Amino acid sequence: MRAGHVPVMTAEAMRYLQPERGGVFVDCTVGLGGHSRAMLEAGATRVIGIDRDLDALAQARVTLAPWAAKVELVHSDYRAIDSVLDGLNITLVDGALADLGVSSMQFDEPGRGFSFQRDEPLDMRMDRSTGQTAAELIAITAERELADTIYAYGEERFSRRIARAIVEARREAPIDTTLRLATIVRRAIPTRGYQRIDPATRTFQALRIWVNRELDGLDVFLGAMAKRLRVGARLVVISFHSLEDRIVKHTLRALEKSADVALKVLTKKPLVAGDEEIALNPRARSAKLRAAEKLA
Ligand code: SAH
Known about the structure:
DNA polymerase, domain 1, 8-stranded mixed beta sheet, 13 helices, binds S-adenosyl-L-homocysteine
C-alpha cells in the first residue's frame, strides 16, 4: 500500500465485523484497500469493494492482488448499493463497512484540488468521471447559496463575508485554483492573532462536502445496507466530522426502532481512536466508529 495511508481504527472495525467467521463482506469505501486487506487476512471468503474514485480502485487492486480471486472491485457510489449487489447476484451479506469521507491519497495526491497546501486546479470531485468541479460550481452559484453551503457544511461563522468575497473576486477572474480560493477566504476573515488551523480549512471542507454531496442520501444508504445484512451480520460505519456522525447516529437509532429492519445498535457511544493511533495517523483524530447487528 502507498505510504501515508493507514486505515483508521482497523482493530475496532474487525472486532465488530468478525471476518474470521467467513462469508461475503462489502467494503462500501474500499479506498486503497487497507480495511479490505484486513478482512481478507482475517478470513473473509469474498470481499466486494466499492469506490467512486477510479484512482482509489486502481490502488486497491494492487493492495488486494494476493487475494484477487476473492475480490470484486466495483466503480460505483455506495448509495447505489442495491444495484451493485443485484448486479453480482448477491442478496444478503455477512458484514459491511463504510469508512466515510476522503482518503489521504485524495487529499495528498497532486492535482485533485482538495488541499490548499499546493496550488492546483480546484476540482475536488472524488469521482472525476462525472459531475461539476468545485471551480464550476463556484462560478455559477448565487451568493446566498454559497454562504448557506459554507455555513452548513463548514460550520463557518464568517460564511456571508466569504461568499461576498468570492462573488466579488469571480467578477474579476475565474476562481479555478486552490491557492486563489484560499487567498480569497483568508482575506475575507478577520484575523485575531494566532490561528490554530488555517482559516481556509472550514471553507475547503464545506466545498468538498457540497461538490461530492457527501451527506445527501447517507441515511437512505444505511437503511438499504441494513436490509442486505444476514442475521448476525454487522454494519460498521466510521465518520470524520460531526455532521456526518449525527446522521449515522440518528439513522441507526431510527432503524433500531423500525419493525421491518430488526437492527440492534452495538455502540451506545461511538468508539474513538486511541492516543497511540492518533499519534501515528492524524486522520484518526476525528474518527468515530458506530456498529450495529442484524437481528432475527
Ligand atoms: N478504508 C479505506 C479508505 C477509505 S477513504 C482504506 O482502508 O484504504 C474513503 C473512500 O471512500 C475514498 O476512496 C472515497 O473515494 C470513497 N467514497 C466516498 N464517498 C463515496 C461514495 N458515496 N460512494 C463510493 N465511494 C465513496
